[in-house]
Amino acid sequence: MDREQILAWTHAERLDLAEFLETLSDNDFRVRSLCAEWTVHEVVAHLTVATRMSWGATVWAAIRARGSFDRMETNLARERAARFSPAELIAQYRETAGSAKRTPGSGVLDPLTDTLVHGQDIARPLGRVRVLPVERALAALEHVLGSAFYGARKRFAGLRLVATDADFCSGEGVEVRGPVGELLMLATGRPSGLAGLSGPGVGRLVSGFAEAGK
Asked: Which residues contact 128 (CB under 8 A, 6 or more apart)?
């Protein structure tokens, strides 16, 4: 995948998401997102972190979180949400939409994945629709499936994923079919993607998410 193309997609997705965020009400920002511990306001705060973190700041944040990546991310999001209003955060997000800087240790496709998935984390609980462009979502999906970070390998063990809107399949086993965007949501641990699936492997996924949620 061409790096410049990925950066261009990320820039475009960030600007489109910023435009979407500007349509939300004050109450919308208080709604719980698909990220169980975060409000919409806190998800927006999280989105502004990646282009503002140095190695030193990341190490210090990890120390404060006692080595837990999830705790570190939550701390940073909540601190920025407490410090800045939604309007201020959206302005910051726009300001660095074209930045190639990313969280230390992450890859070039991670910011695109973050933008696509968190856009859904925000929109879906609000009953709003954000279309996931198939080509961009497919690049993110392939990245997630190949990464140890997202847990997709374990989540999809024994399953064969088949996209219904793109020439894509992955894995071996019981078949699960669905749009690329829904497969991406599932690959990143969002059970909201289950509604768009079909095939004999869906039950296994439902059970896996139910077990993980206990």
From this structure: 20, 122
Q: Residue 117: CA atoms inside 13 Å, Cβ hemisphere, count?
A: 27
- Alpha carbons 104 and 120: distance in angstroms, whole number: 24
User: Does the reported pTM lie above 0.90?
Assistant: yes
Q: What is the percent of the chain where pLDDT is above 90?
A: 78
Token pair listed for 110? 């991670």
Token pair in block for residue 196: 């768009």
Rounded CA separation 126/148 (Å): 31
161 Rama sector, left if φ>0, alpha if ψ -120 to 50, beta otherwise: beta
Residue 147: name the closest of 188, 177, 101, 186 by CA. Answer: 188
C-alpha distances (whole Å) from 191 to each of 120, 183, 184, 211, 213 are 12, 10, 11, 12, 10
**Could you write out the three-class secondary structure of the chain?**
CCHHHHHHHHHHHHHHHHHHHCCCCCCHHHCECCCCCCEHHHHHHHHCCHHHCCHHHHHHHHHHCCCCHHHHHHHHHHHHHHHCCHHHHHHHHHHCCCCCCCCCCCCCCHHHHHHHHHHHHHHHHHCCCCCCCHHHHHHHHHHHHHCCCCCHHHHCCCEEEEECCCCCEECCCEEEEECHHHHHHHHCCCHHHHHHCECCCHHHHHHHHHHHCC
Which whole number is the average pLDDT over 60-84?
Answer: 83
